[in-house]
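Support request, priority: normal
Reporter: lab tech (M.K.)
Component: structure prediction queue

Hi team, I submitted a job for Viral A-type inclusion protein repeat from Apis cerana yesterday, and the status page still shows it as pending. I've pasted the exact input below so you can check whether something in the sequence is tripping the parser. The sequence length should be 211 residues. Please let me know if I need to resubmit or if it's stuck on your end.
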Amino acid sequence: MNSFDSIEFTQCVSKLPDEDRNCTAIDETTGEFCGETETLKIIDEFQKLYETRIENVDREFENKFDQVCMKLEISKEWIKNLKEQNIMLVQVVEDLEQAACNRVKLLEEKLKHSSMLVSGNMKKSTNTEKTISTLLNRVSNLEKDEECMQQKIEFLQSDIRGLLELIRRAAQENHWTLDDIKFFEIQPSDIPVPTNCTCDQVNINHKKYNL
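Reply from support: The job had stalled in the queue. We restarted it manually and it finished. Here are the results:
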């Protein structure tokens, strides 16, 4: 990704409207949304950008050889762009994991404090059993939420490894194939492929994958 694309990608992330954000959790300190954005929408915009650039090559260059070379150059830049975006996704996943751990710890501390208060007033309160039941349900729900979040993080990490393997094959083996790569949170159709490159440095597999 060149410096212009990097700036544009960052601006795309920062300018997404609030209704396009996935996560609706609010930070109690700042009162702001946590900020998880639909990064696949951004990747889709970049896909359209590169597809347009490739389509314009035929109009900008008359020589067939120049057309093929330019399309190959754009495809290489596209792959490099994807790799850098995947690195950013890895950082996002790590940040989400750390944020999730911090939230769980904070909630555990609050629950511990609440449990101590309930224990101290147990004899005086006629609603002690109901309060404890509510707290237990909250703990159970938190544990379930933590498990779901951890599974989602693992799925995202697996998808990132799959994308990196796909890029490695393209860069080192000159093959663009999804064989033996399984995705959980994304679909193969979401992954842009340099379909207009006619050189033998990119081997495109046109099979449909049911993952």
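Residues 37-138 form one domain. The radius of gyration is 24 Å. Let us know if anything else looks off. Ticket resolved.
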